Each structure stands twice: as structure tokens, then as C-alpha cells.
Amino acid sequence: MRLLNLTIIVGVLMTLISCASFVGVKDLDPTVFYKPDITLKYKDYQFGGWGVLPYSKDNFYDIEIEAAGKIDLIRVSTNSRLDTDEPHSRRVFRNGKKYKYRYIPDYDLEVRLNSLITIETFEAGLPGRHSVGLYMIDYGPRGVDALPAITKCNARAKSMDGVSMCVTKEGLYQQLKFKVEVELMTNSKKSCAIVGGPKKVWLFKTRNRICEYTFLDLENGLTHAHLSVGYEDVAVRRYK
After folding, report:
1. With 60 as the cut, is the pLDDT of residue 171 above it?
2. Is beta strand 131-137 parallel, antiparallel or unpaired with respect to 117-122?
3. Are the C-beta atoms of 223 and 217 separated by less than 8 Å?
4. Which residues lie below 8 Å from residue 34, measured CB to CB, with a gap of 6+?
5. Is 75 left (phi over 0), alpha (psi -120 to 50) or beta?
6. 117-122 and 73-77 as β-strands: parallel, antiparallel, unpaired?
7. Dihedral of the alpha carbons of 210, 211, 212, 215, in degrees to the nearest 10
8. Which domains does the chain have, with CATH numbers?
9. How much is the pTM?
10. In this predicted model, what pLDDT tens digit does every residue of 158-170 receive, in sequence order?
11. Running DSSP on this structure, what letter comes out for residue 108?
12. pLDDT of residue 191
């Protein structure tokens, strides 16, 4: 009897999995800012959609990019570059969903300015970009004046050197905690504005889309670059 029940349960599960392979839940809306979901692998590190990569003494990063769908066009951009590639490239593999890329950062423009690395993939037949990944690099060990902080994002605390990120649903709280009082030196736009300071603890709601902040220790001249990303929805993909 137990064996029969187990057989029935397995059969039901297989039926559900089979149905999920063909049923699309919803189409992607090009006007909606979805949660970043491009997987990035670097050495023994793996990031799901966003993250801060560790410093590399080699001064280059050989990364593997995996999109949620087929890559018909890929775009990698920073504050000073825009690289694009199409699927005929030898760097696209594994059913057209993975891509190999070597990133060699420019010290003056990308390192010292803590540039965001945006990875976007596009799939033929889908409106707008299909997947996006947002990444930064912790350049503190290279001599950039780094101010450490403890960040709280998605209710998880993490110690960061001079660069941090928080990707969460817009409207949710996030927090940065410093050992000394710091000023908010810059932010990217008026909609990202945070009031207050100088203070050690900065608690604020996540704004819609991308906001860049730089916190400054006036006494020692150290800085902390923080990227806040508030997404509107989570993309539900059609399985193939």
C-alpha cells in the first residue's frame, strides 16, 4: 500500500513539473523594472542578479554570465564603456544562455569612481531587455580610500569594506551603519534624496530603481560607495 501511494505521489509531481514546462505565467512588461536575475560566476564566487565582486590583483576579471533566457544580444556597460555582442560569438555557449567576458577595469574612470557594471541580455521576440545583472567591485585593497560599513538589506546584515549594494523591493527599509559619523556626500538624483546627517546609522526606504550614494568620513577623508536598487516586480519566466 505504501509503495502504491508513493507511486501515485511521484506521478502527480511529474505531471505538475511537465505542465510547468509549457505554461507561461505572464509576459515581461518593458515598462517594469524587474528584480535583477543574471547569474555571474567569478572564480569560486557566484552571484544571483547582483553583488560586489572581490578585488583582483590580476587587474582583470574573467567572468561567466548566465541569463534566464537565450542570449540574442548582450550588453555590458559602465560609466565609461559600452560593449555589445551577438550570439555568433564563440563566447556564447550552453544553449545560448551563457557568455564568457573579460572585464579589465580602467583605474581612473571605473575604479576610483566606483563604477556600476550593468549586464543586460536581450532575447528575440521579447520586448525590452530579457535579463539584467548589476555588479560592483570592492577596490579597497587597491588603495582607494575605503570606509567600512555594516549593511542591512533584506533583513540580512553584512560587513562591507568600501563598496556595498542593496537590491530589494521598492519601499522596503535598508540600513547602513558606520563606526564614525558620516555625511552623505552625493546622490544620483533628487528622487534618491536622503535627509539627515552627519550620523553613524542611516535608515531609509528603498527608492524605485537605481540610486547611487557616497558617504564621507570628514575627519579621515574615507568614502563608502553604496548602490541601492528598488525593483518593482519579479519576472516569472516561461520554462522551455
Report:
1. yes
2. antiparallel
3. yes
4. 28, 132, 231, 232, 233, 234, 235
5. beta
6. antiparallel
7. -150
8. 39-140 (2.60.40.10), 145-231 (2.60.40)
9. 0.79
10. 999 889 999 999 9
11. I
12. 83
Helices (H), the chain: 2-20
Identify which of 120, 151, 152, 118 has the alpha carbon closest to the alpha carbon of residue 136.
118
Rg (CA), the chain: 21
d(CA 230, CA 188): 14
Contact 224, 147 (CB under 8 A): yes
What is the number of other CB atoms lying within 10 angstroms of the CB of residue 181? 13
69: CB partners within 8 A, 6+ apart: 97, 121, 123, 126, 130, 131, 237
Q: What is the number of residues in the chain?
A: 240
CB 224 within 8 A of CB 139: no
| Cα–Cα distance for residue pair 54/124, rounded to 1 Å | 34
pLDDT, mean over the chain: 82
| Angstrom distance (rounded) from CA 193 to CA 207 | 9
pLDDT score for 29 = 77
